[in-house]
Amino acid sequence: MSANFNILKSFVNEYKETYTIQEEVYDEGLVGDIKKVQKKLLDEKFLPSNQLVGILNKQIRRARYPMEVAITGQFSSGKSTFLNALLARNILPTGITPVTSKVNFINYGEEYKLKITYYSGAQEFAPIESIADFTDQREHEMKDIKYLTLYAPMDILKDISFVDTPGLNSQSQSDTDTTRKVLRDVGGIIWLTLIDNAGKLSEAEVLEEYMQHFKNKSLCVLNQKDKLTPDQVETTTNYVKEKFGKYFAQVTPISAKMALESRASQKRVLLDDSFDAITKEFKKELNKNMGISSLDFFKDSFEAFHKKVDEINSKDMTDDMKLLKDSNINEVLEFIENTIRPQAAESKEFAIKKDLKGICDILIKEYETITKIYDALIDVLKGCENSLIEHFENIHKKYSKELYNIYNSLEAIMEKIAHETYKNIKRKKSFRFEESKSFLGGKIEKFEYETFWIDSDAIYKSLFYDDQTIDKMFKRSIKLLKNIELNTDESFRDAYRIIKNEVTKWQEPYELIRKHREIASDLEFSNTRHFAAKVYENVLRTYHRAILENISALRKKFAYFNGALSYSYIQTTQATIGHFEQQILESEELYKKEPSRFSISHPREDEIVAKLKANFGFEKIEDFLTSKKNYLFKIVKYSKEQYLEINEDRINFVTSRKEQYLGKIKDLEIIKEEI
């Protein structure tokens, strides 16, 4: 019992694990929001493209990417020194001549390194020390470089990426254009200018051209305040605020040189530098001593490291802190934290969600393209209805008249045969004998009377042997009927051709259709192309089969009547003559027995016509050829009803295909609303 229970328990647990839907837990914040959208957009029902997967992953990386702050201004304003001060490291090269000719992205990395990205798309890495080789405008080979990325293991870079731009008075127009694009896309802008050069006309012109739309995220930093007296700093700062206030949210005077000296001497920085140095040395020495099991080889270096750490920790930071305060660099850091960061986060979220909505719009538009394809086919199928119904009705109108003409021709034949037969009913004398009774006894009396006989030889000679008119009339009728059969056959085929031609016109542009945007589903458009290419199987085949079936039914009916008309008219005439000969003979026998009661039959011409028609099966022929509801009428009526039924079914089928995409559009619109 216990074993069975354990088996059952194991089954239940396995079932739960397999079929229980686990609610997915998402990260808080923007990344989590993007992942929710990603999961919905990558649902298998949308048959998502690889490009869509890639762009959604890119949005997640974008959300995780640190806030970007651009450092710009005119050349020789001390941007590199300023950035070094923010980073608390002498990383970027500084000098008298303008050196930053390319955009430098300064990002967080586990180690110091430099990545060079070329316009060709190629990338290479270099030691951080070589950055000066790639930032000198005097080097002609720099033209192939698109941008540089500097990676450094600094905590500040985990939250902020700095963009060092060439400036807006670059010697290269392409570099200026690049800087302009950077300013538009970054979360915040720090405009750096020399305090003793601020407010000049040339700078005002640059600001007017490039900075007038970025006030809320821009800080004006007046560098080298250490060159002026406090009063001069205050006067200049107020002047710049008044003159350039419309371009900046704040104006702050600083000394990048003082800030760098102070920040580079801070305990945390010195300790980090010492740790990096000892780590590199340890790795170097370890490579030299791979076969040694003891760390004695590194004992002296490690002790020296500890000694240096102690010295740093015991260092008096009073002067450095005063220098830091005097540099005013903290105001810059506070502006970044309190003004730029909230706006950047909001702006990034807005931009990403706008892009996600844009992705939804693209996918919706592509699905709408597909639905329009099906709409066009529905319009074709609906548009053919009147033409097809009219075509079927014309078949009946046209060929009913021709069939009636054949009937008249056949009737004329019957009348001609009947007339010739009636004309050759001849009279002859005959005798009858009757016993008369009297008181003298019985006596046989002879009576003369007039009777009739049909001269069949004369009929046959006149109708069939000497004159071929009847034969020609029959052959002509058979030929006409065959022609009608062939023509109605083709007319029914034309009915199919009408709809086929229109559907083929629809098919031609769509069996090669391609998506307009890369992120759209390849499979959705592949399925649409396949549907268009297989439109015969998907739509036309049902019409075609129905038409062929109706043609076959009509052929069978024509075959029957062709057979009827091919029946020997001579035999029919013989049978008719034989009938009336027998009728005359029988009436004569009755007359001879009771002359007062019976008379000898003399067939009327209309009676002969009626008998000829009966022997020829004329009733069925008449029904086929002349009736308002003849077989042609019936087959045409059935074809119309069948066509309308099939057309409605195919329209519903195409509509159902379209509605699948309308459902996806609705789902995308809901996703868009939820973003």
What does this structure look like?
With 675 residues, the protein is of the alpha/beta class. The protein has 3 domains: 59 residues, no CATH class; 195 residues, Rossmann fold (3-Layer(aba) Sandwich); 237 residues, no CATH class. Helix content is 64%, strand content 11%. The chain is built from 21 helices and 11 strands. The protein has a 9-stranded mixed β-sheet with strand order 4-3-5-2-6-1-7-8-9, sandwiched between helices. Strands 10-11 form a two-stranded antiparallel ribbon. Helix 8 links the parallel strand 8 and strand 9. Helix 10 runs antiparallel to helix 11 and helix 13 packs antiparallel against helix 20. The longest helix has 95 residues. The mean pLDDT is 85.
The oligomerization state is single chain
Cα gyration radius (Å): 54 Å
**Structural class of the secondary structure composition?**
alpha/beta
Strand content bin: 5-15%
User: What count of structural domains?
Assistant: 3
| Helix percentage range | 55-70%
Strands ordered across the widest β-sheet: 4-3-5-2-6-1-7-8-9
- Shape from CA axes? rod-shaped
Between the first and last Cα atoms, what is the distance in angstroms?
A: 55 Å
Low-confidence stretches: none
Taking all residues together, what is the mean pLDDT? 85
Number of strands: 11
Count of helical stretches: 21
The description of the largest β-sheet is: 9 strands, mixed
Quick structural gist:
This protein is α/β, with parallel strands linked by helices and 675 residues long.
